[in-house]
């Protein structure tokens, strides 16, 4: 399997001198194509920093990040913006939809920002897959939280990105809706071959992934394949995450 994302000895230090915080310490990790990976760890362990460095949203202090074989180190802000727009999809906790735009306009926004044409067949297919075919003309305020997150997932998929990053994508949803959205993320991995990397606090959410990376104090301290919610919760407890 080819790696879509590869981090080699990535460190990230925030601040300088006495106030410096090492958020990542020499992290090496690879995410194979077509896999669903959850990133877990106690609060402050570096999960968001990992995601931001892997996605080109933040620049590591040292080390190498490669996305689909492209080295990110040394890229300027314009190049990174272009890369994020065309090759990466994002799903955030807070949906981040534009209230004045309807479903189709929100979903196709990344294409329009990138100056790319909208493939109507692909758009229809994505809307069908996320279960929004009847909602194309609705505004975000006319949709439930789960439906809004489905719009965000469709928007993340529309550019056919190499990887979709999720930052607590189910953090704002109730349990049932969260499970539906997690099921959908797993479905886009299994049936579309999409690669998904998701930061979560929730062992149940992590159990939808094919594997889990555990971060503690800026380091990857463990990995688990075929995770179950119980096994993940037990591992987190041993890390002192719930102390
Ligand atoms: N912009 C910043 N400036 C200074 N310190 C930062 C900054 N961003 C993160 N940190 C610090 O880096 C460390 C890792 O933060 P990060 O947000 O990656 O952890 P996390 O595991 O995602 O935490 P949480 O689960 O609470 O969201 C923490 O000690 C945090 O305080």
From TrEMBL:
What GO molecular function terms would the record report?
ATP binding; ATP hydrolysis activity; transmembrane transporter activity
UniProt keyword terms in alphabetical order: ATP-binding, Nucleotide-binding, Transport
Note the SMART domains from the entry. Answer: AAA (SM00382)
Q: Which residues form the ABC transporter domain?
A: 5-242
Task: Please tell me whether the keyword Oxidoreductase is annotated for this protein.
Answer: no
GO CC annotation terms, alphabetical: membrane protein complex; plasma membrane
Q: Does the keyword Transport apply?
A: yes
Gene3D superfamilies, per this entry? P-loop containing nucleotide triphosphate hydrolases
In terms of PROSITE patterns, this protein maps to: ABC_TRANSPORTER_1, ABC_TRANSPORTER_2
Among PANTHER family, the record links this protein to:
ABC TRANSPORTER RELATED, IMPORT ATP-BINDING PROTEIN
Q: What is this protein called?
A: Putative ABC transport system ATP-binding protein
Q: Native species of this protein? A: Nonomuraea wenchangensis
């Amino acid at each position: 399997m080819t790696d879509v994302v590869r981090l080699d000895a990535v460190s990230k230090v925030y601040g300088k001198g006495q106030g410096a915080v090492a958020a990542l310490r020499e992290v090496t990790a690879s995410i194979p194509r077509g896999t669903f990976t959850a990133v877990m760890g106690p609060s402050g362990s570096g999960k968001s920093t990992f995601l931001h460095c892997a996605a080109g949203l933040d620049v590591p202090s040292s080390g190498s990040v490669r996305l689909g074989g492209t080295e990110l180190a040394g890229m300027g802000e314009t190049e990174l913006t272009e890369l994020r727009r065309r090759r990466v999809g994002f799903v955030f906790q807070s949906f981040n939809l534009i209230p004045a735009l309807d479903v189709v306009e929100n979903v196709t926004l990344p294409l329009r920002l990138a100056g790319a044409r909208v493939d109507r067949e692909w758009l229809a297919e994505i809307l069908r897959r996320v279960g929004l075919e009847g909602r194309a003309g609705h505004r975000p305020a006319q949709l439930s939280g789960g439906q809004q997150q489905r719009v965000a997932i469709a928007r993340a998929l529309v550019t056919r990105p190499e990887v979709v990053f999720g930052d607590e994508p189910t953090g704002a949803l109730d349990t049932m809706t969260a499970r539906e959205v997690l099921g959908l993320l797993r479905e886009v991995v299994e049936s579309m071959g999409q690669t998904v990397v998701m930061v979560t606090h929730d062992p149940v959410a992590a159990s939808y992934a094919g594997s889990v990376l555990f971060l503690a104090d800026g380091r990857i301290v463990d990995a688990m394949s075929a995770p179950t919610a119980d096994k993940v919760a037990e591992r987190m407890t041993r890390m002192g995450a719930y102390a």
